[in-house]
Design brief:
CATH superfamily of the domain at 97-413: Trimethylamine methyltransferase-like
Number of strands: 21
Helix content: 40-55%
CATH topology of the domain at 97-413: TIM Barrel
Low-confidence stretches: 1-11
Shape: globular
Radius of gyration: 24 Å
Length: 512
């Protein structure tokens, strides 16, 4: 007696699934890149003004240590000064740099239709990280990450619609030296996805050599500058308030090459930045404003992201706590603060302390990424795949987190209220007719436009779930990741250009 109703429900569900399977334009989907955020505001206007004023005071009175000659030259020519290896920034030149800085810019994908607009109130989710380990599903252990992992994670991201950009997730630890590591990473990330890409470099000369590679992939000398499809993720500071010489030298090269830059400060509250969260924000803002000022003095309007990544310590041990509530509110506040100043914002959210994609990873990622998205962060880095406080990356986590990001982005979109969505006529028609909304024209029309559906998450009954094998989300994600890696080999770059690059640089990545 119980089987017949279940078959009827299944048939109705199958019909609705068929409706949902019909193609729909990207701009009509329930979620899409660049939805407007900014409704969550952990800081008051007065709070932001005080943090901003403190950052300017720090730059004018404490300065930045270990400046490279190019920064010294442009800042001193503009009215700053150097004393005892510290570079001091008067308030006026910093605020002039803010006025001349680019407020919005396009981060190109190699596939132009996958480019994203950075700035304003638009929110995008993506990856990042320098994990040195990969989680192994079969053994529940960890292994060293490789250049092949750079490429494979990029291939996965290429198929995951709710991840809008890829910054390399892992370190190619199998490469013999920094040059080979930089070149293989740059190649693997770019060849693995047509979405906007980011990576980093150890040395200035590697930047120039990589842009030569990008020109070859794009079709000729100077082509990358015309349409830069890779941005630099540049951790240019050793907090507190001291430049990292090698990274800052790379930044000079990145400006010269026309490459967009994420100006990234990652002080750890209680260790390399103040334990007081407001102080941590002020320090990070000062550090990022120093780089913004130098970059805009070199090339006014160079595309940059203010990458305030204020990390948190577990003050009992001093270890990083990437999944904490403090991390969530700090990232949201950092995004709100930078948006208030009027500059493109980027934060790191999704850095779970869990070692596997479990409940802990789910709640830590969900809280932190949701707050960042609702605060209006233009770019939410680290939002997929990362585990173990950024020490590890997981294929299964990437696939599961894609589901999560779809749901989070749906909450960022919110609810549209107008005469049509209030549905008075539809309600009246249903009351006069079938008594339910399942078959109404509005329901069918809005199935994809208003609602998003998980690919990994299970919404079936317990009985049906058991009949289907009783698989966990990680089990399903593992199967999905394996299928993608077995079948998906992106071809957005012409084969002859790719072959020329592989021959020129002796690339280690296996294209399969």
């Amino acid at each position: 007696m119980t089987e017949e109703p279940r078959r009827r429900r299944s048939g109705g569900r199958a019909g609705r699934l068929a409706e949902r399977a019909a193609p729909i334009a990207v701009d009509e989907r329930a979620v899409r890149p660049g939805l407007a955020g900014g409704k969550y505001r952990p800081l008051s206007e007065s709070d932001m003004q005080q943090i901003y004023d403190t950052a300017l005071w720090l730059l004018e009175n404490v300065g930045m240590g270990s400046p490279v000659p190019e920064f010294v030259q442009v800042v001193t020519e503009a009215g700053g000064h150097v004393d005892d290896d510290r570079l001091y920034f008067p308030k006026g030149i910093v605020e002039n740099a803010i006025r001349t800085a680019r407020t919005e810019w396009v981060w190109h994908g190699f596939d132009d239709d996958r480019s994203i607009e950075v700035g304003g109130d638009k929110v995008h989710f993506g990856t990042a990280g320098a994990a040195v380990l990969m989680h192994d599903y079969a053994t529940n252990t960890f292994r060293h990450s490789t250049a092949q992992d750079v490429y494979d994670t990029a291939r996965l991201v290429d198929t995951l619609d709710n991840i809008h950009f890829l910054v390399r997730t892992v370190v190619a630890r199998d490469q013999e030296d920094a040059r080979l590591l930089d070149l293989n990473t740059a190649y693997g990330a770019t060849i693995g996805t047509g979405k906007p890409v980011g990576t980093s470099w150890f040395e200035r000369e590697h930047v120039y050599e990589t842009v030569e590679m990008y020109d070859m992939l794009a079709g000729g000398v100077g082509e990358f500058r015309k349409r830069p499809f890779v941005a630099a993720n540049n951790t240019f500071v050793v907090p507190p308030l001291r430049y990292a010489e090698e990274s800052t030298n790379c930044m000079v090269a990145q400006v010269e090459m026309g490459m967009p830059i994420n100006l990234l400060s990652a002080g750890q509250a209680g260790a390399t930045s103040p334990a007081a969260l407001a102080g941590s924000l002020a320090q990070a803002l000062a550090e990022c404003l120093s780089a913004l000022t130098a970059v805009n003095l070199m090339v006014p309007g160079h595309p940059c992201v203010m990458g305030l990544w204020p990390f948190v310590s577990d003050l009992r041990t001093g270890a990083m706590s990437g999944g904490s509530g403090e991390e969530g509110v700090l990232n949201a506040a950092a995004a709100q603060l930078v948006n208030w100043i009027g500059l493109p914002s980027g934060v790191a959210a999704g850095m779970s302390d869990s070692k596997i994609p479990d409940n802990q990873a789910g709640y830590e990622k969900g809280i932190n990424i949701t707050l960042a998205g609702h605060a209006g962060a233009n770019l939410v880095y680290e939002s997929a795949g990362m585990l173990a406080s950024l020490l590890s990356c997981s294929h299964e986590a990437l696939v599961i987190d894609n589901d999560m990001l779809g749901s989070i982005n749906r909450t960022v979109r919110g609810i549209e209220v107008n005469e049509e969505t209030l549905s008075c006529d539809v309600i009246a028609e249903v009351i006069a007719g079938p008594g339910h909304f399942l078959g109404s024209a509005q329901t069918l029309e809005l199935m994809q436009k208003e609602y998003i559906y998980p690919e990994i998450g299970d919404r079936d009954t317990p009985d049906n779930w058991i009949e289907a094998g009783g698989k966990s989300a990680m089990d399903v994600a593992h199967e999905r990741a394996c299928e993608i890696l077995r079948t998906h080999h992106p071809s957005h770059i012409p084969a002859d250009r790719e072959a020329a690059v592989r021959e020129r640089w002796g690339i280690a990545v296996d294209r399969g």
